[in-house]
Design a protein that fits this description.
alpha+beta, Uridine Diphospho-n-acetylenolpyruvylglucosamine Reductase, domain 3, Vanillyl-alcohol Oxidase, Chain A, domain 3, 3 domains, 7-stranded antiparallel β-sheet, 5-stranded antiparallel β-sheet, 20 strands, globular, FAD-binding domain-containing protein, oxidoreductase
């Protein structure tokens, strides 16, 4: 028989020095407001606990596990939009943002980061040392969630996925044991945590290798939608260059507003060296534009993006080969789908394309759990986002998004360009990113989960996220 979550909350209240926040309290409301999406922020946990060190996490997990079938969720900065991925109804929410300490070793080659920190905190700490980590592009994103989901960074062409820069994970297991997983200890868990999301334990600290950094070239370039084919050609040439420039990182987005029935075409070309006009972007920069805000800046300044109000939000993702023709087809699919789709309130649709060249995946192939390798060839990750105001329209918008994604995948498959990989940090709840890692990696992840969590606590009692599906 399941133990009511209120009983779990009562037990957690006996932990010395740990505050337990309940509905209608200031601390409870602050955590609920911190989620990016209304879907997450609208869930109501029975109580919220906020550990400040790994010993607190050990005590919390031990109490929860000992209390029958009490369910719980783990929250970092709360960026994932899907309901229940980092929050829970009628369960315990463990808010990790109290674990945000940052320190470096003597020469700055290694940084230790609490799992609840944001990437902006990391960049602000490291920039004065002319060091950085291949972390999230928006500074408000959390270190923990991005890393265990893989992580794509401005620096990924130099170092691989964010998880490939991890030197050590400090993890609290369901047994209450705290261990370190790295290249010499618990190597199987070390690999599994690189893309295996929240299936193994609670990561309390990440140790990353750092890389040198100075000023970088950053900004946005906006083009009239009539220039889209020229922009798509430039993007394809950057992404599929015979020798990819490892300092280049670009995202090109198509943005449609249901209010104005108008498209915006915006690119964010980043160059991680202080070069104001790198050759890799010359074709893009030569296209007549509406605005160009490119300038040399520091990473922590770039990553300090303006906070957005909590709103309805969804992600979908796919991966496909490089083709300007396919991106043109994606635009046509979206244009015909969105133009006549009217709902009360406003909807913004964003279709963002970002290169996944072989130089990124080669860094961690076989050493992470993502199942990507250079033999897959250069690819493009597509992030499909919807942002809307009227919650009553959510089911219609989800249905429309699912249909458009199916049409995009069909077009890519028809052209022989559909790839299997689905990036977990961009995936919608109905998608199966872990399955896209391939049968061998799925079997490996299940074996590791069973070894370190034989009672399946993180499969059965942490319902959010992408589960491994073993009993």
């Amino acid at each position: 028989m399941a133990v009511p979550s209120t009983s779990c909350c009562g037990q957690l209240g006996t932990i010395t020095g740990l505050d337990v926040a309940f509905p209608n309290s200031t601390a409870y409301a602050a955590t609920e407001r911190a989620y990016w999406s209304l879907q997450e922020g609208s869930l109501t946990p029975s109580c919220i606990v906020k550990p400040t060190n790994s010993q607190d996490v050990i005590a919390i997990i031990s109490k929860i596990v000992s209390n029958g079938d009490c369910q719980f969720a783990i929250k970092g900065q709360g960026h994932a939009p899907a309901a229940g991925f980092a929050n829970i109804d009628n369960g315990v929410l463990v808010d990790m943002t109290g674990l945000s300490s940052i320190s470096v070793n003597g020469d700055g080659s290694r940084i230790s980061v609490g799992a609840g920190a944001s990437w902006l905190e990391v960049y602000s700490f490291l920039d004065p040392m002319n060091k950085t980590v291949a972390g999230g592009r928006n500074g408000a994103v959390g270190v923990g969630g991005l890393t265990v989901g893989g992580g794509i960074s401005y620096f990924s062409p130099q170092t691989g996925f964010t998880c490939d820069s991890v030197l050590n994970f400090e993890v609290v297991l369901a047994s209450g044991l705290r261990i370190n997983a790295n290249s010499t200890s618990h190597l199987d868990l070390f690999r599994a945590l690189k893309g295996g999301v929240n299936n193994f334990g609670v990561v309390t600290r990440f140790d990353f290798s750092t890389i040198p950094i100075g000023d970088i070239l950053a900004g946005n370039v906006a083009h009239d939608i009539s220039q889209r084919h020229n922009v798509f050609e430039a993007l394809a040439n950057i992404a599929d260059a015979p020798t990819y420039d490892s300092h280049a990182s670009i995202v090109t987005s198509l943005i449609f507003s249901s209010m104005t029935k108008a498209w915006t075409l915006r690119s964010t070309p980043i160059y991680t060296k202080p070069d104001p006009n790198p050759p890799v972007y010359q074709q893009l920069f030569a296209i007549p534009n509406i605005t160009n805000t490119m300038q040399l800046t520091q990473l922590h300044v770039l990553a300090n993006e303006t906070a957005t109000p909590q709103t309805n939000l969804l992600f979908y993702t796919t991966t496909h080969g490089i083709s300007a023709e396919l991106i043109d087809r994606v635009f046509d699919i979206c244009n015909s789908s969105f133009y006549s789709f009217d709902v009360p309130g406003s909807v913004r649709w964003l279709i963002s394309f970002e290169p996944l060249p072989t130089v990124i995946v080669a860094h961690g192939a076989g050493r992470n759990s993502l199942g990507t390798s250079a033999k897959d060839g250069n690819a493009m990750v597509l992030l499909f986002t919807a942002i809307w105001t009227d919650s009553a329209q959510s089911s219609r918008i989800h249905s429309k998004a699912a249909g458009v994604m199916a049409d995009i995948d069909f077009a890519a498959r028809e052209m022989g360009l559909l790839h299997k990989f689905r990036y977990a940090n961009y995936a919608e709840a109905s998608q199966r990113p872990i399955a896209s890692y391939g049968a061998e990696n799925v079997a490996f992840l299940r074996k590791v989960a069973h070894k370190y969590d034989p009672s399946s606590v993180f499969q059965k009692r942490v319902p959010g996220g992408f589960k491994l599906g073993y009993s």
